[in-house]
Structure formats: C-alpha cells, structure tokens
Specification:
- By secondary structure, the chain is mainly alpha-helical.
- α1 packs antiparallel against α3 and α4 runs antiparallel to α5.
- The longest helix has 23 residues.
- It is globular and about 45 Å long.
C-alpha cells in the first residue's frame, strides 16, 4: 500500500536529522503541554536524538523502497513492523511517556491491519 509509505515519508522526515528533530521535538512538547496530555517527553539529549535520527533514516529508506518497488511481501513486512511500532509506543506511554504518541499508534495499527488484507497480486507473487 503506497499510501502508508507516503504517510511514513511525510511523518518521519523530521526525525532524520538532528536539526529537524530538534524543531519537531519542540512542536511535540508544546502540543502535548497545550493539550494537557498525561506523560512527558524526556529532555532531548544526544542519545535520544541519535535513536530518533536512526529511526527516521531507516523509515525514510523503507518508505522509498515501498514506493519505488511495491510488493505484497513488502506490504506484509510493513504490517509486522507497524504492529511492533504500535506495541513499543503503547509500552512507552504505559511507562510514563507522553500520550501524544498514541495519535501515531492509532495510525500504525490502522495501516498495520490494512497491510494484511488479501491482495489480488498475492497469488501471482507466490507462484
């Protein structure tokens, strides 16, 4: 499903560099506080910036792979990755992380479920 790949590209590019992540982090913190959401974002430091940049870079490349070479197999793998992301996001919120993460979790779960719907191309790819 190219829609989910384009969504990933649009949402994750700010995570890919230290500079764009710093801006995004400020926006997410302000939104969370402005909405009065429970939980908190930890102070931004070199380590969480590194992990955000790694995740952002990998998801950008993964998105481009799915846009440029879409297949049922990549869609199914994407579905698995989305359910894993959702699980870790829920874990983070349950461990005191900001509830703003749950907005992303809902989308991850929706796209994750859609990636497992039957596809016409599936029979051709398996033969």
């Amino acid at each position: 499903m190219k829609t989910s790949a384009w969504y990933d590209l649009a949402i994750t590019w700010p995570f890919a560099t230290p500079w764009t992540f710093a801006l995004l982090y400020g926006v997410l913190g302000s939104m969370s506080q402005g909405l009065g959401l429970p939980g908190e974002l930890p102070p931004r430091d070199a380590t969480n910036t590194l992990f955000a940049n790694l995740m952002g870079s990998v998801v950008l490349v993964w998105s481009l792979a799915r846009i440029l070479s879409p297949s049922v197999r990549l869609g199914r793998l994407d579905g698995v990755a989305r359910w894993l992301f959702a699980a870790w996001q829920i874990h983070a919120v349950m461990s005191g992380g900001s509830a703003i993460v749950l907005a992303f979790t809902v989308i991850e779960m929706l796209f994750g479920a859609l990636q497992f719907l039957p596809m016409e191309d599936e029979a051709r790819e398996q033969s």
